Amino acid sequence: MSFIAKQYENLEVSAMVAASDSATLVKKMIDLSLGDHDIKTDSRIVKAAAENKIIGHTMYTHPLGDENFREEIIKYIGKNYNHKLNLNNIMVTIGAGNALYVSLKAVLNPGEEVIIIGPYYASYKDQIKGVGGKVVVVNTSEENNFMPTINDIKEKITKKTKAIIVNSPVNPTGSIYTQQLLQQIYDLSVEKKLIIMSDEVYTSFVYDNNKYTSMLEIDKNLTNTVVIKTMSKDYAMTGWRIGYMIASLEIINVARYINDGIAYSAPTIGQSGSIEALRLSDEITTYLRKIYDERIKYGFNRIKDIKNIHTRNPQGGIYLFVNISETGLSGEEFTNRLIKKGVLVLPGNIFGKKYNNYIRITCNKDINILKEAFDKIEELCNF
C-alpha cells in the first residue's frame, strides 16, 4: 500500500537531482551542472552574521523578514532601479524558489494557466503543477536569440491564463529581455488582467555593455507584477538560503499567510549576513561579474574551436546553452557519455522538450578546471 499522493505516484527523478547524485558518487567529477558557486562568501558577510548571532540575535525574525534587512533592500532597489518601496512591499523567503511558490499559490486557482518561455528554468513546471496550475509553454528559437515576440505570447493566452513568468537574464541561455519587450509584456498583462512573475536572479551578471531592465522599472506601482530576487547568485550565498519577493500589499499579505504554514520566516543568520552583503553590493557584484565574464568568454571561445557544437555568446548569466545537434547525439546521450569522461553537465530537454539537442554548461569553476572540462568535451566531439 502506498500513501503517496496520486500526482507523485509516477514521479521521475529530476535531471538536477540526478546530476547532484552523480557528482557525489563519482570521484573527481568536474561538476558543471548546477548553478552553484565555487567562490566562498565574502568573509565580511560571514563575520557580520556571526557577530550578530553572538550578541543574541538567534530568534525568529518578523514573518516578512528582518526590518533592517528590508530597509537595506529598499535602499538597494531605490539606488539601482529608481523604485520607491515600503517595508510591507517586501517579504524575505528561503531562497527564490520559496518566493515563487508562495507567489503562485497566492494568485492561482485550480486549472488556471501560467505561460512560461522556453527554454525555461526546470523548476517552473513543478511549482506551477504543485499549486494546481497548468503550464503553457512559449517556445523560442536560437535564431531569435531565444527571445519570444509579443505575438508569440499573445497566441498562447486563453480565458484561463492567469500569469506569465519572465526570467532575465535567462537561465539557461543568458539572453536578456529588452526594455521594449518587457514594456509590451506589461501592457499585455494590463490589457488581459494577468500577473507577471519576474524572476530576477542573475541581474549582476550582465556582460559587454548589454543593458538590463528590471520589471521594477516598468511597473512602478506593482500593479501587475511580482518581482523575485535572491542573495544566492549575486553575492555567492547559495547556502545561506535567502531570497525575497516584491509585490503589492494584497499579494504580500496572502503570500505571508501561506508561508506561515511552510516556514514562518527565513533563517535569521542568513538575513544578518544579507544586510552586510547589500551594503557591500557594488564591490562584491563587480568582483563576481569580472570572474564570470572571464569564465563565460573562455568557454564561448573554446566552443567556437570545437567541431560539431556551437553556442551563442550569452548577454548575461553564468551558463552556456550549447547546440550539439551536429554530433548526432541527444542531450541525454551526450551528457551520459561526458559523465564517463568525468564531466557533468545538464541535458537541454530539462529546459523544455524542444531543446533535446542542447546541453547546459555552468561556468562555475576556475579557468584551469574549465580547460580540463572543455578538453574532455572536445575529445567527445572528435569522433
Automatic annotation (TrEMBL):
Q: Biological process (GO) annotations?
A: amino acid metabolic process
Asked whether the UniProt record includes Membrane among its keywords, one would answer no
Keywords of this entry: Aminotransferase, Pyridoxal phosphate, Transferase
Pfam assignment, any one? Aminotran_1_2
Q: Pinpoint the Aminotransferase class I/classII large domain residues.
A: 27-377
A GO MF label: pyridoxal phosphate binding
Q: Which domain of life is it from?
A: Bacteria
Q: Which InterPro entries match?
A: Aminotransferase_I/II_large, AspAT/PAT-like, PyrdxlP-dep_Trfase, PyrdxlP-dep_Trfase_major, PyrdxlP-dep_Trfase_small
Query: From which residue to which does the signal peptide run?
Result: none
- Asked if Transferase is a keyword of the record, the answer is yes
Q: Which cofactor does it need?
A: pyridoxal 5'-phosphate
Fetch the PANTHER family from UniProt: ASPARTATE AMINOTRANSFERASE
Which protein family is named in the record?
Belongs to the class-I pyridoxal-phosphate-dependent aminotransferase family.
What is the name attached to this protein's record? Aminotransferase class I/II-fold pyridoxal phosphate-dependent enzyme
The record lists the lineage as:
Bacteria, Bacillati, Bacillota, Clostridia, Peptostreptococcales
